[in-house]
Amino acid sequence: MDDDFEYYITFPVIAEPVVSKEPVIILFGWAGCVDRYLAKYSEIYQKKGCTTIRYITSPNVVSPRCIDEKKIHNLAGNVINLLLDMKFDKHPIFFHVFSNGGATVYRYVSELMKKKHPNDFQIKGCIFDSCPAKVRASGFVRATLAMTDGSLVKRYMIAFVALVRAMILGVYSALLSFFTGKINYYLLWNALVEEPNICPQL
Fold first, then answer.
1. Closest CA relative to residue 103, chosen from 64, 137, 52
2. Is residue 163 within 8 Å of residue 141, measured between CB atoms?
3. For the chain, which residues make up each domain, given as ranges?
4. What torsion do the CA atoms of 27, 30, 31, 34 make, to the nearest 10 degrees?
5. Which whole number is the average pLDDT over 95-117?
6. Is 73 helix (H, G, I), strand (E, B) or coil?
7. Which pLDDT score, from 0 to 100, does residue 189 have?
8. pTM of the prediction?
9. How far apart are CA 172 and CA 11, in angstroms?
10. Under a CB-based contact definition with an 8 Å cutoff, are residues 54 and 39 in contact?
């Protein structure tokens, strides 16, 4: 497991477990999320007798037009290895994913589960919270501003540069797709719509 794979696990706070294998809730936060916000959701599940795992992906790993394929695949493998190491494959598992950042992580974890562990996990449900969403320029700028620290001028400059970069990558990807038939960018919306459902989704 990678050293930079940072996650948080919390266990039920009830005195006696209601079931022998308590549900495991995996929370994938939005890109740029601060853990104290995600921890509030975790606390709700804890009080209901659930174990929770919280993870927040770096904004550097995902973007509206492209992702770091190597990092996201390694991340998905780390999540699955964690579940196996903790023996959570024997527990009912639910996902609660936030915004496109969390949904992106879920997408690759789900794909890897279906590909390499089709019968190893008891996936019981997934909550999509404010996602997936088709990314437009205005939404991209707002998201970048929310994830960026510093003065307002600095944040807008970073958002502008990021938007130009995304547009260039989009044009490049479209041309590459047209001439080679290969797509090197991801469309989260399409991927999740076309994904075979392995569990109830909300």
1. 64
2. yes
3. 5-134+186-194, 137-180
4. -80
5. 92
6. helix
7. 76
8. 0.79
9. 46
10. yes
114: three-class secondary structure by DSSP: helix
Q: Write the pLDDT tens digit of every residue in 4-52.
A: 678 999 998 765 656 678 999 999 998 778 899 999 999 999 999 999 9
User: Exposed (0-12), middle (13-18) or buried (19+): which is 191, by Cβ within 10 Å?
Assistant: middle
User: What is the distance between the alpha carbons of residues 31 and 112, in angstroms, rounded to a whole number?
Assistant: 21
Burial of 97 (0-12, 13-18, 19+ CB in 10 A): buried
**Residue 112 in tokens:** 């890897």
Could you please state the CATH topology (level 3) that the domain comprising 5-134+186-194 is classified under.
Rossmann fold (3.40.50)
Extract the tokens encoding 119. 């019968």
From CA 52, how far away is CA 182, in angstroms rounded? 38
